[in-house]
Write a structure and sequence with these properties.
Strand content: under 5%
Order of helices and strands: HHHHHHHHHHHHHHHHH
Number of strands: 0
Structural class: mainly alpha
Shape: elongated
Largest sheet: none
Amino acid sequence: MIKIPLLSLLILSSCASVKKDAPESDPNAAFNKEKPLKTSEVPKYIENTPQSVNPALMDETTDRYSNSELAELKETNDPLIDIAVKCSQEDFKGAFALASNSFNKYQNIASYWNIIGNCHLNQGSPRKALLFYNKAIEVKANYVPAMNNIGVLYSRQGEKQKALVAFEKANKLAKFSKTPRYNLAKLYLSFGLAEEALVIFQGLLSSSPEDLDLLNTVASCYVLMSNYQEAFSHYQRIPRAQWTKPEVGLNLALTLKKIGKDDEAMSVFKGLAETKSPALKKYQVSIGTQLGEKE
């Protein structure tokens, strides 16, 4: 069994089928059904993405969108995006209803099945999700988004080795796709492989240098490697308003302590917002002890 360092945990802190429409009373209904689209007739997943503090993966996934950013995408002319947005907002009833209504048109489109799989995964039904991911791969062989999401599914279930196989396969098939690389790097961190993860995160950061999540993740990698000066240089690129977030501020406070800025370290630590995460709470106690905080 591979033991996961607590600091790595901090950094990590992204059987049913769709039924066909019921027979209609109108005898001409069969002739009125929408003609299934071909893959070439469907636009790329997300176009014209809204501005974001985490733009690196926004053209590939809605997972890192804020509520306000999701609102900008809501009610588009693309049912696939609308389904994805409803799922991200946990409007599962609405998402599945829209998916059912869109079946005739999108039944031959792999991303349709993949998005429904995401809905089931987010709803807490991994077995159903896996069925839909496999359906997406059946519709389009070696469909990378579904392979990536199978990795996400296994990772959430704690089956790290299976997740690793899925992410590596997705990454090999689509070397220029960012999401599988990002998830692979996160998995490396769960194994405590900070240097291997850092190489991938740095590559992503080079194409999106203002992405706050990537800046924080790269800084945290340097913390794991005890390279505190380099970590601090990345934290300085993150707006101070973000320092109150425990997922940012805890490692920043430790970094400041390690480079001799004790007062600043305690100031950041004292200014942290409350967290509901048990892992972050435990880590916060550890950092407080290292800073010399008195109970």
